[in-house]
Amino acid sequence: MFLTSSLPDIRAVRVDTILALREEYRREMNCQIVHDSWHARGFTHSYLFTVAEQAVGYGSVGSSEPGPKTTVKEFFVLAQYREIAFPLFRRFVAVSGARTMQAQTNDVLLSSMLQECAVDVTSDTILFSDAVVTHLDAPGMKLRPITTFDRLRVFRHTVEPVGDWGLESDSKIVATGGLLFHYNPPYGDIYMEVAEPFRRRGCGSYLVQELKRICREGGHIPAARCAKDNEASRQTLQRAGMVSCGTIVTGRLAI
């Protein structure tokens, strides 16, 4: 139990110090954490929260760009200590020097902090989870792995990288896609791109459907994301049985 006479201590630590707490955070989130790999890639600074020398939570500030880490990315407090979550968050912001924060709206605790402590809130990314098994077809299309030779002659990709899987029509690759696994296990992030002449024909949704199947057959859980203003991508994911499970929101700290 929390001792009301004890003041929380917040100190900067190595990321390996908070690994056990991060596992608790991952279990509670039970969804894809978009920037999970930032910790291993050195994009974050970690802070441990203790009360009477007992670890009660952690926070992370980060940036994928060189320079100061001033954006709150994660904030986790063990359930039995959440009565002090708001004052603890304010102290964490002060100690870390954070100026902004970013949260997935399916992260209930951090989203609550954002609603209470941030202004100028914006959102530009929708998160998707797999919800429906679809039975789409793409007549005349063949799904197959992308070869090294394919990569030398494939259509120009403008948004996504060339994937490991492709749709072939009349011996020509018309769409590619793949799965990224640098998120928290067991989630696999689906990406794909369709050649301009073959868009709006159902190719993208069929490819997403098949990438979902490949993902699950490999023991992973499909997930995806797209820009909020990318209506074509959103509809493609929805037709393939993906549903919105949250958004990424960013705000300026005002505390």
Provide a descriptive summary of the structure in words.
The protein is α+β, with helices and mostly antiparallel strands. The protein contains 6 helices and 12 strands. The protein has a 12-stranded mixed beta sheet, with helices on both faces. A hairpin with a 2-residue loop joins strand 2 and strand 3. It is elongated, with a radius of gyration of 21 Å. The mean pLDDT is 95.
In short:
The protein has about 260 residues and is α+β, with helices and mostly antiparallel strands.
| Helical/strand content category | alpha+beta
Number of helices: 6
- The level of helicity is 10-25%
Low-pLDDT segments? none
Distance between the termini: 28 Å
Arithmetic mean pLDDT: 95
The arrangement of helices and strands along the chain is EHEEEHEHEEHEEEHEHE
Helix-strand blueprint:
Layout: E1 9-13, H1 19-29, E2 44-51, E3 54-62, E4 71-77, H2 85-96, E5 100-104, H3 108-117, E6 118-130, E7 142-145, H4 148-153, E8 165-169, E9 172-180, E10 187-194, H5 203-217, E11 221-227, H6 231-239, E12 242-253
Parallel strand pairs: 4-5, 10-11
Antiparallel strand pairs: 1-2, 2-3, 3-4, 5-12, 6-11, 6-12, 7-8, 8-9, 9-10
